[in-house]
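Sample log: FAD-binding dehydrogenase.
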Amino acid sequence: MDADAIIVGGGLAGLVAACELADAGRKVVILEQEGENSLGGQAFWSLGGLFFVDSPEQRRLRIRDSRDLALQDWLGSAQFDRPEDHWPRRTAEAYVDFAAGEMRPWLHAMGMRWFPVVGWAERGGGHAHGHGNSVPRFHITWGTGPGVIEPFERRVREHVEGGRVELKFRHRASRILRSGGRISGVAGDILEPSTVQRGQKSGREVVGDFELSAGAVIVTSGGIGGDLDLVRKAWPVERLGPPPKTMVAGVPHHVDGRMIAVAQEAGAAVINADRMWHYTEGVKNWDPIWPNHGIRILPGPSSMWFDARGERLPAPCLPGFDTLSTLKHILATGHDWSWFVLTQKIIKKEFALSGSEQNPDFTSNSWRAVMKNRRGASAPPPVEAFKEKGEDFIVRNDLCDLVDAMNALTGEAFIDHDRLRMQIEARDREIANSFSKDAQITAIRGARNYLGDKLIRTAAPHRILDPANGPLIAVRLNILTRKTLGGIHTNLDGQVLDASGEPIDGLYAAGEVAGFGGGGYHGYNALEGTFLGGCIFSGRNAGRCAAR
């Protein structure tokens, strides 16, 4: 054999699996269709958020979390309701145990560290037993996505030096081989050399082929978010409505889902393909890296949210609360876009942009840079750059001028100035009291009861139309593709299951291609910080099982 195990995909899940195999003395080949500078895959572009339960960071901020509360939140969000959800649910329960137990100390021992203020993502739909995080659990890794990748890449490269791991870039798998009733290797194409930067679109000219044999094959090739046609094909029309005609891509083009079909040809079952996670706060990148490059705004709770016709979105469609409910509501209007309306006071404290490249202060591990960029009258420099150069951002001193610019941007006179003013003024009147019937005002005040939000994430309540808080800002929001929640059906050990639910001898899957474990351990909704964590957890399980 050429190796004990072949890993298809050099992203985070693949690196974790390779570390476990090589640590156990196994010889590993990693196949990656992109160039060497793409090692680490999609995780490189992330904010580096990890879902921990009852962490030291939480306890320092007086957040009372527990395994039982986290599992309640997870199951309330997942809403498992299908017979094939047996392994997704088992994997979810095991992951919550991992997140409440050895995950943080295990990663800490490798050198990972986290920003001391825990983020409160995906706050939910309004019921304790339903979707959402009851408490803040989003831990930003110092170094963001590259900081999460670094310890695993370092270990892999040490094994490369020791002869236990071989990296084969520009190798695109197209067939999983069988021999004697079990998986025996991988065959595919060798692509032309590529010198493009990480994330940029690389060439697909074939210059050769390959065939490699191994005792185990682990598929860790990612999801479908870079192929908008595949996203639309899998779109759950009955649940979310028709797919958007216009979307922006939150992941590079090579997140193409090819290996899902290749694994199916080898006998793998795919489940929950209709479950997906796309964001509603996407803006077009003014300095794009990949085609149709979109960036997600990570909003605090204060921006007013309006649909394409200028009608305010109802609760729980509030910034940062319930992603899929908001997506469904927006699409039900018959339009693909919506609007934030806010002030300079809100944008400077509440706006963050998702991604390692949009957060150079966190990515650089510099406390000084973080303090410099996130204090003063301006928003962090990347946000100010979007405000100045992004085509979706409008800045005006007067609401009438703002509305004119909003209608000019879309080419449709959908926004009526008097109607928009009435809704904003009604909201502004609620600021005069410390109590309110407005769900968003109540949510803002609730957020500021949490020290972390009060310090760095939630602006003090103020009147949007008061010129002292200006200028006024409108942001057109696009649907942004991101994650595949379903995928290749596996058990807790990452063994790929066939249509009858039996393991396929020698075949494993981990990461997004496997729905982050089990074939979809999120169920219908994600609690955030669980994508990188799912890659780590499922990659570790698959690597350890394959090594045995």
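Observation: The first helix runs from residue 12 to 23.
Observation: Residues 3-199+485-547 form a domain with the FAD/NAD(P)-binding domain fold (CATH 3.50.50.60).
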